[in-house]
């Protein structure tokens, strides 16, 4: 096993990907695209341990993410998809899997609008069909932005925690243990550069109007999220899954948007199950009931 960092540029913006080479050269590599708070050196370590042995894993800090150059909000998701494809194609793999979580999942959606023949399987979590964010969700996100601007840390933490964790926002708060307190501590200690990146993402166009698109690729696509997800409601995520010829949607019970933080081992097993074999059963998940398809307003 060896690890390398590949430095890239896309239309003047510097970014990088971390390549964790494994022994099985025949196994398709997995490209991981994370959310706004992910960095390619850390977020996927636990996930890597659940993937099939020998799998090469590539994590990408796209412009505006992690340690990459900041990206103004005038650059939309199609620009990010172009940068993502540059990373994929620079490594020269014939076949590969794509995994996108949260904003990284929106980028992978755009990648699939200009899909290459090398895509084998896809996993999208914490995502939904566009447009996103809707008016109500955007208003709540902007209230967190205003709180941050005026130094109101308590309101910022309250709004962010409720949006990301839903009904589990109070879990472990009194004891100061578990993913929610850790998330609150991290949000409260973000440096100004990261907060500016988050602000840019809020005003970025994640579903560019009139963007040219190919027919959806005829590959297995798994979409999943927590049943209590507020940021990307299950009903809207289900609509996205059904837009793919071989799309499938499931939900994780008693979870919100942050499944990878709330239950990282289960998250990894869900991803590995879809990538590793054709299975009728995805662990820790269930189908979405007909009465739940309406979803919550976003």
Automatic annotation (TrEMBL):
GO terms for molecular function: hydrolase activity. Residues 40-267 form the AB hydrolase-1 domain. It comes from the Bacteria. Keywords: Hydrolase. This is Alpha/beta fold hydrolase. Gene3D superfamilies: alpha/beta hydrolase.
